[in-house]
């Protein structure tokens, strides 16, 4: 029993990692009051930028950095539109996703079918030899450990640091934050860039380490799921982690179910993550008070200091 | 750059403004304004709504940058770059619409406005010390959204006091307080002044300024119209400086009261909003031909009560609200309007009117029942005529029916909304904050229109935080506190003192379920009728 | 001297109409730069992309054929967007429309009744509405964001179609290809111009524009939806039922998307395939915005977007560029539009850096 479950859990962690990156990034962005619906587009651009760089330079880490930079660059477009030009955040986020779909497909054409050497996941010394936990937790790609570090850093930043308090105050009431002298637009810019960078890393992880290959539209809704996760987590990092691995598990479960010969047509199993997203959203958002108490009050609203 | 540390001669003013000017695309907010405040002086900046007081204070605090002019701090020219810089100089500001963060704790709110990174534990200790010293009790660990309005103001004041300010700016601080709390605040301010702190006190309430301030600068339409010592003036002379003429007073005849039109018969409801107030067992009846005023400090259930009456948040039961004899508790706003209810809400932009729509469209918003929709299509010409009728009949200064609601001044938009509701021949009119943020002329106009409508036999309920206003227009008064309603009292049998005590929830037999107030009795008669 | 945005006293109506033109021009300029950067002769590339596809009647017919679903969906979405109901799952609703219509066509496979096509149209609209009803129900009942649910349902719809054409509805004589049988004559839209692929579904789209105009700009319900979209507290105050607005916004969008799905399977495709749309449901979002959520604007924007599709195909053949360039142009168009919109409410002012701002030692706040 354990023998079959261990690889499932290990695969779950890997499958959840792109969501961890993207959702933690979006969480920080939203905590500053910015709703960036372009996560899917930023992940796609991160994925193709990472993959293309990794293929051309042969350096996977360079690929990851390129993915991060590309994601941040995408979010910068969004930031200019919504923070400087006061465009509607919902529409701009959609535009970012549509643009990302188009641009990644265009740039990615030459890379379709190109293969990247699969990087074996290293086993951490000592920890990797632990029974059960070792193969599940400590024989992952380095980026998985990075994602845990990001989780710790984001949690500390948001709830233990003064800068995090300022960021939350901006998301809470930009008017008040401006009145007591914080640079609202600059803070929102930084939060948006951070979200874009992490979405880019998430995409790069997907294309460079997880898949590893480039297929048009390969993010396949993970960006939207990451957005849903932030709501599901009621804007708390620890719950984001739980949610991301839950979804990783749902994704993995379908492969094992198909492999295990369960008599459900494949498309229905493939639909599970999307249906699961809807279900968790319903469960969490039916409690209006919870959402009201936890969501950043100014989320999605433009702000212009006079 | 001069800093607060530099010694200043005792005779130099703490702050001096020279020729401050700020121009917005649609309005000149401040023009060539000069004033000076000495150490330990409580200086009033007096002016009616829209005179430019708040803009001037934001300039002093570094939130807004002036287009021209000079500012001197303790004799040295200074350019305030931003609020942090202002605080460094020793300027503190208590905003009219508080700059607090609801989901953060008191101590987190305080730390956000302090320089450096003080640890939260000792800071909480300091907050308690300061709050005790100045008689401003507040628990530093509570979340701000759980605080009353008065407590929130204390947090703002404490936040300023922690940095030992040399100048404290108070922007309309008393609009959210009971008369007793105002007195308490004045004691604190006097204590501060005696310690050498200068205070800039922004207000449009003449009696308060007379009681508290030792110097005053009067603004009108963005310009200084005079400096004076309020102790040497009468409210009448200051009013002249403020509005250029005598304060108008509405004409009020004896009421001709008829049948009850709006009855609350045990209205209770738990607020669905975690930041809201629960309503408890409210009884009240408003008769045709009378004006009933509801006094109270904001945040005591006014919003919830109004939403329950208007139908924006219908109840789950029918019987607690009777509208023209019908049980209306569960009705949607449309059904209640069909029974003859009209309603002027507190927020003009975004609720009473759609900011980005024309006045004609905004007329259609609630007046569509007057035959302006035919076969599902809008009769735009007829709507426009109605909008024009509102504009002409209520002296609305605007660019015509196609002008956007957002382009109107607060007073003009309020006149338009009041006109729109009054022209629909209501049987019951509910008005929230009829003159909030409205200039004196428009306020007098609106109050007179409300009284005229009462003389025509309409039942009118007015909810206001301005006690003076309620005493001016109401026939009877009730007080709302902590989600409960006091008994009603005829205006002639009560006074500001008594109502002030009631506003803190202490009316006779408050909380005694056995007690039957007169309003309670009436409600029962009405239900049986 | 520096450039500064200043709030206009009144929003500019002129800019409201000029902004889409600005956006189109900026997109063209960006395209010019893009083609040059890709080493193509930009003038020739422009010709290939924007002129060559519509050089003859057939080209124009193709333009209208592709504009047809775009305008149809966009006008439906505009109803919702005006009420702040963000249905971004039109692609899924289109797919369901195609499935429902396809089901009818396959069920009446050998029928020559003239009622088959009307039945398909009704079924397709119902299919799209059913799919849109899910987010509407979840939003009104459980307060769930329709943005995310409608989008998730796109993936589910596509997988459902995939299941059908791989399984129960697969053409028995189709050599195991994932596709249904070819629909018979009675299940296809009649042609409008012989020798082209333009069919009668285009008339339906034009009719939708007209009805959309009446509904959005003249009807009281359309007015209520605008109020709900611009100020929900005002809508509640006036007694407009917010739930009804959500239902209407989603159902109208779902119905038009479903109809667009019928137009594809009963039009140029003529059968069910794993993919029945090259992203019309998403492109229509852009059309709705570029068209200012106004039916006339949508009509014009749909033609532009259709040209981008044709241009992409032409670029693939004539310029050896991936047809995905279409998506790139679409995205840029929307970006430029959103950016240009700033001039509706703000104007650029050249201001002298004033003395106070210049000495700010701690940095300006904006």
Model description:
The complex is a heterotrimer of chains A (306), B (529) and C (366). Chain A has helices at 2-31, 39-57, 60-84, 89-108, 133-137, 142-160, 162-172, 174-179, 184-210, 222-232, 237-259, 266-270, 272-285, 288-294. With 306 residues, chain A is an all-alpha fold. In chain A, helix 1 packs across helix 10 (222-232) and helix 10 (222-232) packs across helix 11. Chain B is an alpha/beta fold and 529 residues long. Among the domains of chain B are: 15-90 and 164-243, Rossmann fold, CATH 3.40.50.300; 260-340 and 426-528, Rossmann fold. Chain B has 17 helices and 23 strands. In chain B, strands 13, 16, 19, 20, 21, 22 and 23 form a seven-stranded mixed beta sheet that branches. A six-stranded mixed beta sheet of chain B has the order 6-7-8-3-9-10, with helices on both faces. In chain B, strand 1 (15-23) and strand 2 form a beta hairpin. Chain B is globular and about 70 Å long. The N and C termini of chain B lie far apart (77 Å). In chain B, 51% of the residues are buried. With 366 residues, chain C is mainly alpha-helical. Chain C has a domain at 69-318: ABC transporter involved in vitamin B12 uptake, BtuC, CATH 1.10.3470. Chain C starts with a strand and ends in an 8-residue tail after the last helix. The model of chain C is unreliable at 353-366 (pLDDT under 50). The interface between A and B is medium-sized, with 21 and 28 residues.
Number of domains of chain A: 1
- Summarize model confidence as the mean pLDDT of chain A: 91
Work out the helicity level of chain A.
over 70%
Number of helices of chain A: 14
C-alpha Rg of chain B, in Å? 24 Å
Cα Rg of chain A: 19 Å
* Helix content range of chain B: 25-40%
Structural class of chain A: mainly alpha
Percentage of β-strand residues of chain B: 15-25%
CATH topology of one domain in chain B: Rossmann fold
In what range is the share of β-strand residues of chain A?
under 5%
Count of alpha and pi helical runs of chain B: 17
Compact overview of the structure:
By secondary structure, chain A is mainly α. Chain A has 14 helices and no strands.
């Amino acid at each position: 029993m354990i023998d079959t479950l261990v690889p499932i859990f290990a695969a779950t962690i890997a499958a959840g990692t792109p969501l961890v990156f993207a959702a933690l990034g979006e969480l920080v962005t939203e905590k500053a009051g910015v709703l960036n619906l372009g996560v899917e587009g930023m992940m796609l651009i991160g994925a193709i930028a990472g993959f293309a760089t990794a293929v051309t330079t042969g350096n996977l880490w360079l690929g990851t950095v390129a993915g991060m930079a590309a994601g941040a660059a995408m979010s910068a477009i969004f930031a200019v539109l919504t923070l400087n030009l006061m465009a509607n955040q919902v529409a701009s986020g959609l535009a970012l996703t549509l643009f990302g779909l188009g641009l990644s497909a265009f740039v990615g054409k030459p890379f379709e079918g190109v293969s990247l050497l699969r990087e074996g996941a290293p086993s951490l010394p000592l920890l990797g030899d632990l029974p059960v936990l070792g193969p599940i937790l400590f024989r992952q790609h380095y980026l998985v450990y990075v994602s845990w570090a990001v989780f710790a850093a984001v949690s500390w930043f948001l709830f233990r640091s003064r800068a995090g308090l300022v960021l939350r105050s901006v998301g809470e009431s930009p008017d008040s934050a401006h009145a007591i002298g914080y640079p609202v637009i600059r803070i929102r810019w930084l939060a948006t860039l951070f979200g874009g960078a992490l979405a880019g890393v998430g995409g790069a992880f997907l294309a460079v380490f997880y898949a590893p290959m480039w297929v048009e539209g390969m993010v396949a809704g993970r960006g939207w799921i990451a957005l849903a996760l932030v709501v599901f987590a009621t804007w708390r990092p620890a719950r984001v982690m739980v949610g991301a691995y839950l979804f990783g598990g749902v994704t993995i479960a379908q492969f094992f179910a198909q492999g295990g010969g369960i008599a459900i047509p494949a498309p229905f199993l493939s639909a599970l993550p999307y249906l699961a997203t809807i279900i968790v959203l319903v469960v969490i958002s039916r409690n209006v008070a919870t959402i009201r108490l936890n969501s950043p009050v100014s989320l999605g609203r433009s702000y212009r200091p006079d | 750059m001069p800093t607060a540390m530099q010694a200043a001669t005792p005779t130099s003013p703490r702050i001096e403004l020279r020729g401050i000017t700020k121009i917005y695309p649609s309005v000149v907010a401040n023009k060539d304004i000069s004033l000076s405040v000495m150490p330990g002086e409580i200086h009033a900046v007096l002016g009616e709504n829209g005179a430019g007081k708040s803009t001037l204070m934001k300039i002093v605090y570094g939130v807004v940058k002036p287009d021209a002019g000079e500012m001197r701090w303790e004799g040295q020219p200074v350019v305030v770059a931003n609020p942090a810089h202002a605080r460094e100089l020793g300027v503190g500001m208590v905003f009219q619409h508080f700059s607090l963060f609801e989901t953060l704790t008191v101590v987190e709110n305080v730390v956000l406005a302090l320089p450096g990174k003080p640890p939260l534990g000792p800071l909480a200790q300091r907050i308690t010390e300061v709050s005790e010293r100045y008689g401003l009790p507040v628990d530093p660990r509570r979340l701000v959204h759980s605080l009353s309005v008065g407590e929130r103001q204390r947090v703002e004041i404490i936040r300023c006091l922690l940095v030992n300010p040399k100048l404290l700016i108070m922007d309309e601080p008393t609009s959210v307080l009971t008369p007793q709390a105002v007195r308490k605040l004045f004691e604190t301010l006097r204590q501060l002044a005696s310690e050498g702190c200068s205070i800039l006190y922004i207000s449009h309430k003449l009696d308060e300024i007379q009681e508290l301030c030792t110097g005053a600068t009067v603004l009108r339409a963005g310009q200084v119209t005079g400096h004076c010592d309020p102790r040497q003036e009468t409210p009448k002379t200051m009013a002249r400086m403020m509005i250029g003429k005598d304060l108008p007073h509405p004409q009020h005849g004896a009421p001709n009261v008829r049948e009850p039109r709006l009855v609350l018969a045990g209205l209770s409801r738990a607020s669905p909003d975690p930041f809201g107030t629960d309503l408890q067992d409210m009884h009240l009846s408003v008769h045709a031909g009378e004006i009933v005023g509801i006094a109270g400090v904001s945040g005591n259930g006014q919003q919830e009560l109004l939403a329950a009456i208007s139908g924006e948040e219908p109840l789950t039961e029918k019987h607690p609200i009777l509208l023209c004899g019908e049980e209306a508790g569960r009705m949607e706003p449309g059904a209640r309007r069909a029974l003859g209810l009209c309603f002027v809400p507190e927020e003009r932009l975004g609720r009473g009117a759609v900011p980005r729509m024309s006045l004609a469209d905004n007329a259609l918003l609630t007046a569509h029942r007057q035959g302006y929709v035919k076969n599902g299509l809008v009769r735009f010409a007829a709507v426009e005529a109605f909008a024009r009728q509102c504009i002409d009949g209520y002296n609305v200064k605007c660019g015509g029916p196609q002008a956007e609601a957002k382009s109107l001044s607060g007073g003009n938009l309020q006149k338009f909304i009041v006109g729109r509701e009054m022209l629909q021949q209501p049987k019951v009119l509910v008005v929230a904050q009829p003159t909030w943020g409205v200039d004196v002329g428009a306020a007098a106009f609106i109050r007179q229109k409300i009284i005229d409508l009462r003389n025509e036999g309409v039942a009118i309920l007015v909810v206001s935080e301005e006690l003076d206003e309620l005493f001016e227009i109401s026939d009877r008064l009730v007080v709302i506190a902590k989600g409960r309603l006091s008994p009603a009292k005829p205006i002639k049998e009560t006074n500001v003192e008594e109502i002030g005590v009631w506003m803190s929830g202490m009316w006779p037999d408050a909380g005694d379920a056995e007690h039957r107030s007169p309003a309670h009795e009436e409600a029962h008669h009405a239900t049986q009728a | 001297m520096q450039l500064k945005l200043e709030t206009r006293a009144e929003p500019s109506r002129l800019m409201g109409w000029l902004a889409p033109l600005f956006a189109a021009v900026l997109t063209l300029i960006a395209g010019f730069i893009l083609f040059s950067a890709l080493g193509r002769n930009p003038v020739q590339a422009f010709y290939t992309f924007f002129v060559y596809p519509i050089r003859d009647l057939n080209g124009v017919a193709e333009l209208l054929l592709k504009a047809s679903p775009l305008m149809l969906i966009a006008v439906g979405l505009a109803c919702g967007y005006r009420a702040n109901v963000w249905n971004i799952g039109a692609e899924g609703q289109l797919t369901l429309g195609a499935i429902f219509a396809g089901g009818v066509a396959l069920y009446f496979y050998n029928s020559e009744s003239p009622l088959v096509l009307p039945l398909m149209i009704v079924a397709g609209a119902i299919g799209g509405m059913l799919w849109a009803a899910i987010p509407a129900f979840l939003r009104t009942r459980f307060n769930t964001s329709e943005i995310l649910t409608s989008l998730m349902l796109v993936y589910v719809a596509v997988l459902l179609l995939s299941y059908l054409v791989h399984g129960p509805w697969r053409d028995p004589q189709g050599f195991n290809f994932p596709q249904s049988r070819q629909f018979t004559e009675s299940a296809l839209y009649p042609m409008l111009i012989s020798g082209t692929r333009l069919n009668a579904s285009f008339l339906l789209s034009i009719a939708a524009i007209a009805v959309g105009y009446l509904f959005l700009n003249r009807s009281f319900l359309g007015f209520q939806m605008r109020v709900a979209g611009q100020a929900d507290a005002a809508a509640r105050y006036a007694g407009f039922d917010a739930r009804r607005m959500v239902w209407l916004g989603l159902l109208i969008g779902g119905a038009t998307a479903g109809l667009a799905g019928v137009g594809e399977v009963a039009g140029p495709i003529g059968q069910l395939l794993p993919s029945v749309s090259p992203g019309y449901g998403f492109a229509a979002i852009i059309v709705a915005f570029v068209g200012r959520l106004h039916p006339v604007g949508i009509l014009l924007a749909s033609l532009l977007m259709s040209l981008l599709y044709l241009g992409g195909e032409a670029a693939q053949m004539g310029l050896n560029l991936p047809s995905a360039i279409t998506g790139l142009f679409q995205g840029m168009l929307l970006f430029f539009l959103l950016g240009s919109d700033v001039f509706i409410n703000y104007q650029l002012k050249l201001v002298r850096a004033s003395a106070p701002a210049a000495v700010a030692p701690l940095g300006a706040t904006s």
